[in-house]
């Protein structure tokens, strides 16, 4: 194997490690959020993203990026969350083609109830992943990332 092949294998191994850590965390979050709050991880992600916006609304394309979903999957997800009364859609005043999504008071209340579960499970999943030799260096690097500065 040449140097270029080694570099490719190192990147591939890094990607596999990242995917394993993501799967470990997402599985733990999915179980707890679904059981405790009736929310999937992606539903929690959408509610959380909306709660962090000034005015609590986002364009559908922004929401798709925040949730790492295609536009069609985002539309289906927004339909489900809207049917549950957790978010609402609003036409953009200056661009009638634009549609915003906004968190409802019901969605905000559910998010407030689910956030401590999310944070606890995330911490527990990272702690357990730190015990896995293959995942430990990645977990350690996550702990070294700077905290976001408040806006």
TrEMBL record:
GO terms for molecular function: DNA-binding transcription factor activity. InterPro entries: HTH_MarR-typ (IPR000835), MarR/SlyA-like (IPR039422), WH-like_DNA-bd_sf (IPR036388), WH_DNA-bd_sf (IPR036390). It comes from Pedococcus sp. KACC 23699. Coiled coil: none annotated. Residues 11-147 form the HTH marR-type domain. SMART domains: HTH_MARR. This is MarR family transcriptional regulator. One of its GO terms (biological process) is response to stress. It comes from the Bacteria.
